[in-house]
Amino acid sequence: MRLVDLLLACAALVGPAATAAAAPPRDPLGSPMWDFHARRLFGSDPVVFDEAVAVTIPPIAENQRVFPVTVDARKLAGVKRIVLFGDLNPIPVAVDFRPTGAAPFIATRIKLDQRTPVRAAVQTLDGTWHVAGSWIDAAGGGCSAPPVSRVKGDWADHLGEVRGGAWRDGIDTRLRVTIRHPMDTGLVENIAAYNVDRLTVSDEAGQRLAEMTVYGSVAEDPAFTFIVPGTGSGAFAIAAHDSNGLAFSGTARSAPGPAPALRK
Amino acid sequence: MKVTRRGFIAAALAASTPLGAETFAGSYAPDAEPIGQGIWLVRGADEAIGFANGGAIANSVILATDAGPLIVDPGPSRRYGEALSALAARLTGKPPARVFVTHLHPDHSFGAGAFDPRIVAALAGTRVELDRDGAGFSDAMYRLLVDWMRGTEVPRPGLALTPGPLAIGGRIVRVMALAGHSAADLALLDESTGTLIAGDLVFHDRAPATPHADLALWRHSLAALASTPHRQLVPGHGPLDPTAAAIAQTRDWLDWLEQALRDAVASGLDMTEAGSLPIPSRFAAVKAARYELQRSVAHLYPRFEAELLPRIDS
User: Fold this and answer.
1) For residue B147, which phi and psi values (nearest 5 degrees)?
2) What share of chain A is helix, strand, coil (3-state, %, to 5)?
């Protein structure tokens, strides 16, 4: 598949096709792909660059296959969707997260295939997208190098192993989950795309707290951190699904909160 | 290590140079500081590898012998190796007799191309690691250092070292084969001056780097170095240590780092949060501390998560 086809295919999955929308606002990062992504992700919705969205990344991409990103939009009210994307990645969108009960906060790791803006677009109930992010310099290869478990050859032995936990800190509950999965991008010779494509979190009453569409640009063995307001639920059900139709699930039970010194 | 004026100007211009424009490096002018009879320390900048320093961030050592000088760690690039070779010849009046590469990392090893491979010595494990990772390092070094790297190729040391005393031109250096910073870490004891050349097993007032670290093995190697009688120690990065402080400081950093990251995993933090953990005030004088903490999070965190987070699948 040619790169441009893939870009179009990825973009088409997550947003309406471009209509006769107004031009998106001028990009403070000066990205060559901003207009392309903005038109396809946001359509005719209003778009603002907003410092209320905190996108935290390390200053260097030490490992372009596992690059951590934290998006915290808790300063905004009424968040319905958070889209994390890297403009110049061959698979631009990493996750499309709908916090249906969880706080508008997500931490994960993505792959980087070159120097790119890493951004979060946060949509509030009025339809407006609040965008923030920054450039990260990276050498090539995050998306086009084989996963470590492919090289090692043991990916199938551990496929779908779920690890995690939940921590009450007095106000909120923090939930972490990792799933062993090669997250093949399809950009490595003779290895078809194969990735976790959906993940949900529910509380012990069965209420859906988070729904997420996951793309191949999320790092191998995907890891996610959520924050759930309140400390009422003692257990959280995680259900995931991959592009081969396999289902994975787990239950994270609350433990006492983290040491105060480690809370920021 | 000093970078000439031209290098500084080029670096200063680099930020404003339009994309696609050529950026020229300066020339290396390494400085040798005498640290004993017939032994000189060539200091690297206590920084990250960057265009402004030409990648010359690791320490090198020159030892005079009757057969010609020995050079420990030829630096980041062919041209740095050439400058070091010229410096050693100037100091001793002879061309280099032997070049030692302490471990695979390119800031220490890539200058080896300035020398005949038949005089370049390393542990057998270092050769294996260079064959595995050298091409990737080369890509990264050329990308960061551009013109500084001109003519530099992945080194293939021609001599394999084994532990024990090695006599060259009337000087005896004891070869120690250790590990932990990488899979094969060479340390050398210069017996006549009691100088322990520790490579990157020891950092001094500069935070340790962990891209290939095995922390348990590293601690074991630090214990072996501490129990080797010596009068002074040359760390891989940072100033000469006459007081045995550097081994203890490296050990202290590794212990703190591992416990802090394990505590972070056990407390439910994610990687960006672990990278911004407070660094204890006793490391205030340690250069590049935040930078190396964030690198170490990338190297170690997923491993600690796999170990410490319990299986929860149903």
Assistant:
1) -65, -25
2) 10, 40, 45
Structural domain boundaries, residue B111:
2-308
Task: Count A/B contacts: CB-CB distance under 8 Å.
Answer: 106
Q: What is the CATH topology of the domain spanning A3-17+31-262? A: Immunoglobulin-like (2.60.40)
Residue A225 tokens read as 């951190």
- Reported as a single tens digit per residue, the pLDDT across A112-153 is 999 999 999 999 999 999 999 999 998 766 676 777 777 778
Interface touch A176/B295, C-beta < 8 Å = no
Eight-class DSSP state of A252: E
Tens digits of per-residue pLDDT, A48-70?
A: 999 999 999 999 999 999 999 99
Distance CA A242, CA B6 (A): 55
Domain boundary assignment for chain A: 3-17+31-262
CA atoms of B61 and B214, how far apart (whole Å): 26
Say how many domains are in chain B: 1
Q: Nearest CA to B314 among A224, A195, A207, A162? A: A162
User: Would you say A105 and A175 are in contact if contact means Cβ atoms under 8 Å apart?
Assistant: no
Question: Six-digit token pair at B216?
Answer: 């348990």
Spell out which chain B residues touch chain A, with contact meaning CB-CB distance below 8 angstroms.
139-140, 143, 211, 263-264, 266-273, 275-277, 291, 294-295, 297-299, 302, 305-306, 309-314
Instruction: For residue B48, give the CATH number of its domain.
Output: 3.60.15.10
As a whole number of angstroms, the distance between CA B125 and CA A135 comes to 38
